[in-house]
Amino acid sequence: MSKTMQEPTFLILTALADGPQHGYGIITDAERISGGRTRLRAGTLYAALDRLQADGLIGADREEVVDGRLRRYYRLTDEGAAALAAEVDALRRRTEAAARRLAARPRPGTAPA
Predict the structure, then answer these.
(1) Is 90 helix (H, G, I), strand (E, B) or coil?
(2) To which H or E segment does residue 7 belong?
(3) Are 8 and 40 a contacting pair, CB within 8 Å?
(4) pLDDT digits over 51-74, tens only?
(5) DSSP 3-state of 89
(6) Which of 28, 39, 48, 71 ranks highest by number of CB atoms within 10 Å?
(7) Three state DSSP letters for 14-75
(8) Pairing, β 58-66 against β 69-76
(9) CB 97: neighbour CB atoms within 10 A?
């Protein structure tokens, strides 16, 4: 992916990098990964899962019936892992550039060099 990945996509792929999960598991894991800052809604999640599956970034892993309800598990594909790795590298480069610039910034109360 050449453009920056949207946060819900990043969180979903990151959640699935740990292994197959069902929808509610992805929602709770994404919230934990984001430090509680992002909570995916079910409608948003399932629309994103459909899109990511169509894009080949995730796949259906298995289905099971729990309390009379169908629970579908999703897994990260090799393409999805590659896209997540590329995003992590891009984030790392941007973060390092910001850290370098902040470190070189004059401290308050000091004259610029």
Answers:
(1) helix
(2) helix 7-16
(3) yes
(4) 999 999 999 999 999 899 989 999
(5) helix
(6) 48
(7) HHHCCCCEEHHHHHHHHHHHCCCCCCCCHHHHHHHHHHHHHCCCEEEEEEEEECCEEEEEEE
(8) antiparallel
(9) 10
Alpha-carbon distance of 55 to 7, in angstroms, equals: 17
Residues 73/20, Cβ–Cβ less than 8 Å: yes
Q: How confident is the model at residue 112, as a pLDDT? A: 61
Mean pLDDT of the 7-22 span: 96
Q: How far apart are CA 37 and CA 54, in angstroms?
A: 27
C-beta of residue 17 within 8 angstroms of C-beta of residue 84: yes
Element (H, E) at 76: strand 69-76
pLDDT in tens, 28-57: 999 999 999 999 999 999 999 999 999 999
Contacts of 45 (CB under 8 A, 6+ apart): 8, 12, 23, 26, 27
Predicted TM-score (pTM) of this structure: 0.85
